[in-house]
Amino acid sequence: MKNEVVFAAAGNGKTYDICRRAIELSKSTKKDILIITYTNEGKHSIEEEYCKLNFGIIDKNVIIKTWYSFLLSDLIKPYQTKLKLKCKRGRQELNINIPPNFINSIAFYEDVNINTRYKQTHLQYYLNAAKDIHKDNVAALAHKCVEESNQLVIKRLENIYDYIFIDEIQDYAGWDLEIIKIMFESLINVRCVGDFKQATFRTNNSRKNSKYRDDAIKDYFLKLQKDKLCTVE
């Protein structure tokens, strides 16, 4: 399989295709299979479709997660201690060591984070006072974990997963696209599906990759295809 990106209109069986492929692969792979979608509603739809096709059960080596859950549990929390960030206090910038279990969750309860006092080198750029990650900066922090762990994040993913399926790819934006690119560069087989004409949500409002937002996302993957990182259908 390696890396495939499939764009198809609604009703063409994209969720069915993911579940059918995962069911077949679950019988032969020695590692886990991960299915990712953006929303909780999408997660429930995949779970229902999988059970419908598989005698009412989800295979024990198939894991279904939302995108934010994946970023938090697979990329950020295991390697948060590797982060090299500074804590800004007034005009001072203090080096800090982040201990295990320091980061709690994601601040979905917040409005869009527009605080310009902090830079990407500051702890407060990513976390609020409750140690929850600002929604628009989750993928940026995950990307920083990849970089500052000396790729240990990706090596861990390669040890866990043989195949990763990503649904509703049209909703991904900003640093999320950089995470997907890193996954394409790994040993994991990745298949993304979506409909760029049905972009109704957006994972974040980061300025990163802003020219590839919404229906222009197809151009991002066409660029990766030129770089031989995936095929686009």
Please tag this protein with its features.
6-stranded parallel sheet; alpha/beta; 35% helix; 8 helices; 2 domains; 233 residues; 10 strands; Rossmann fold; 18% strand; two-stranded antiparallel sheet; single chain
Written description of the protein model:
The protein has 233 residues and is an alpha/beta fold. The chain has two domains: 3-74 and 151-232, 3-Layer(aba) Sandwich (Rossmann fold); 78-147, no CATH class. 35% of the residues lie in helices and 18% in strands. It has a six-stranded parallel β-sheet, with helices on both faces. The chain has a two-stranded antiparallel ribbon with strand order 4-5. The chain has a two-stranded parallel ribbon with strand order 6-7. The longest helix has 14 residues, at 40-53.
Summarize the structure.
This protein has 233 residues and is an alpha/beta fold. It is built from 8 helices and 10 strands.
Q: What is the H/E order? A: EHEHEHEEEHEHHEHEHE
Q: Which regions contain 5 or more consecutive residues with pLDDT less than 50?
A: none
Q: Which architecture name of the largest domain does CATH use?
A: 3-Layer(aba) Sandwich
Helix content: 25-40%
Which strand order spans the largest sheet, edge to edge or round the barrel?
Answer: 3-2-8-9-1-10
Category by helix and strand content? alpha/beta
Strand content: 15-25%
Shape call: globular
- What is the CATH superfamily label of the largest domain? P-loop containing nucleotide triphosphate hydrolases
CATH class of the largest domain: Alpha Beta
